[in-house]
Amino acid sequence: MKGLQGLGALWETAASIIPLTAILAILQIFVLKKPLHSVKDFSIGFLLSVVGLHLFLKGTTMSLIPLGDSVGRNFVMIERKWLILIIGFAIGYCATLVEPGLKALALEVEELSSGAIPYKLLIQGVALGFGGGMAIGLLKILLNVPYIKVLIPLLLVVMILAFFAPEPFGAIAFDAASATTGPVNIPINMALAVGLASVIEGVDPLISGFGIVGLTSIGSMISVMILGILTKI
């Protein structure tokens, strides 16, 4: 019975990848009239992507999400609330360093800029902003501040920095914000925020527990634009 459930879950993962793969393959072969470079490598790669994504999602459900929820619920045991912010910053920073989407973006930027925007520098800049956004999000939950009162000032900062950040840092900042919201960060951030909001008296976890992913993305945008301004100076 467990074997059938496992196969069913594996098929669900494959079913989510098949449409995208089919569209790209049809475009390559029938529309663009270009052959696949290696049918064997393509087939093996597809199977590996299905198995890898399935195992990653299963592992995340079994480990990262429950662990993040437990840590968030037990944050209230820390008497010095500023320690919660430091821990949140550290978690956001470290999680961003292993985000695969961000690594792909940073490598592409380094290649297209001929090394002018180093891979490691961009990742470190994004991670610092993400950690800062994580700390702001946790502070919002601890103080039970309405989301709009935090969001508007941060968006104003983004708009101001966009005028001063040199190209292409403005565009990179927007892509970096999206690249950080990947399979590593989202489960951890949401679990931490919802877990913390669910144990604070007077805080609605549905209202205050969500939105932290957006704040971390804005933090990443701000840090990348500041990085661009600093490099220009």
TrEMBL record:
The chain crosses the membrane at residues 7-30, 42-61, 82-102, 122-143, 150-166, 206-230. Keywords: Membrane, Transmembrane, Transmembrane helix. This is DUF1538 domain-containing protein. The keyword Calcium does not apply. Pfam families: DUF1538 (PF07556). It comes from Tissierella pigra.
